[in-house]
Specification:
It is built from 10 helices and 12 strands. The chain has helices at 21-43, 48-60, 105-115, 123-132, 140-143, 146-160, 168-171, 228-233, 236-247, 251-263; strands spanning 4-10, 81-87, 93-99, 120-122, 174-180, 186-192, 213-215, 220-226, 270-276, 281-282, 291-296, 302-304. Helices cover 36% and strands 22% of the residues. It has 306 residues and is of the alpha+beta class. The strands form 2 sheets. The chain has an 8-stranded mixed beta sheet. A 4-stranded antiparallel beta sheet has the order 7-8-9-10.
Length: 306
């Protein structure tokens, strides 16, 4: 039995023509650190759930990505974060939406799964679960990044002029991980700050089980990144599993169909990372790029952007 791990840092990449060599190197380094955080657990026969949580925490701690410390701002200048986890062994899941405070929203999503009878929590009750679980909190200074603040001001100025940006980085950015451990179990975790200048209270696909996050040992584990409203309407993550279960498609065929034939023609820019029970990995995307990486037992880790 072998392990495999895939991660993404969002499909809202910097446009290739705007990416400097220094920025590109920084993204590759950050992805590599997240892969190592997750693989270190799998290497010691740890669980897929522990591995995806560790990998996503590493991405949440990295201001380069739109999750945790690098979360984008709402139209009112606040930060509202969503996260989810799902365990392929029994389909247990936990998610949170619109939270601010916990440094690692993915840890709060797992706490909801393990400490409550519910799947999704929002608001003060979600934060109370975080406190009871002893999670670390950060203030506005901890979560502030100048580039995200500047992006908000630019987006608001464009709106005031009646303009719409074609830069995908403004519309979506998420982090996630999927893994298969040596015991044959799979899991998924996803975390996001949402869309730049989103309406306060807006919830995307990340915390919606079956849309942005899904895991079932019988089929696959999926973490999505993209135009959340479309991923929700097309039930993107769950549809990949459904095509495997009911149409007998393999992972790559099912993932490609959903990303390229269902989402792409319907303004569903973005992509997914997915792993099946045998440890096969698929990472299709229909946008210009997707920060991503993968590693399998016995192989060197790989990271890619475009």
């Amino acid at each position: 039995m072998t392990y495999s791990l895939a991660i993404h840092g969002g499909a809202g990449t910097l446009l290739k023509e705007n990416m400097t060599p220094e920025q590109e190197a920084a993204y590759h380094d950050a992805l590599a650190r997240a892969l190592e955080a997750g693989e270190a657990i799998l290497r010691e026969s740890g669980s897929a759930m522990d591995a995806v949580e560790a990998a996503v925490c590493a991405l949440e701690n990295e201001p380069l990505f739109n999750a945790g410390r690098g979360a984008v701002y709402t139209s009112e200048g606040t930060q509202e974060m969503d996260a989810a986890v799902m365990d392929g062994r029994d389909r247990r899941a936990g998610s949170v939406a619109g939270v601010f405070g916990p440094k690692n929203p993915v840890k709060l999503a797992r706490a909801v799964m393990e400490r409550t009878e519910h799947v999704t929590l929002i608001g003060p009750n979600a934060l109370e679960i975080a406190r009871k679980a002893g999670l670390e909190f950060g203030d506005r200074d901890y979560f502030f990044t100048q580039s995200r603040w500047d992006a908000l001001q630019e987006t608001l100025a464009m709106r005031a002029r009646g303009e719409v940006s074609d830069d995908p980085a403004r519309r979506h950015g998420t982090v996630g991980a999927v893994a298969r451990d040596v015991g044959g179990n799979i899991a998924a975790a996803t975390s996001t700050g949402g869309m730049t200048a989103k309406a306060p209270g807006r919830v995307g696909d990340t915390p919606m089980i079956g849309a942005g996050t899904f895991a079932d040992n019988a089929t696959c584990a999926v973490s999505a990144t993209g135009h959340g409203e479309v991923f929700i309407r097309w039930n993107a993550a769950g549809e990949i599993a459904a095509r495997m279960r009911h149409a007998g498609e393999d992972l790559a065929t099912a993932a490609d169909h959903v990303v390229l034939q269902d989402l792409a023609p319907n303004d569903g820019s973005g992509g997914v990372i997915a792993v099946d029970g045998a440890g096969n990995i698929a990472m299709p995307f229909n946008s210009q790029g997707m920060y991503r990486g993968s590693v399998r037992q016995g192989s060197a880790p790989e990271t890619n952007i475009y």
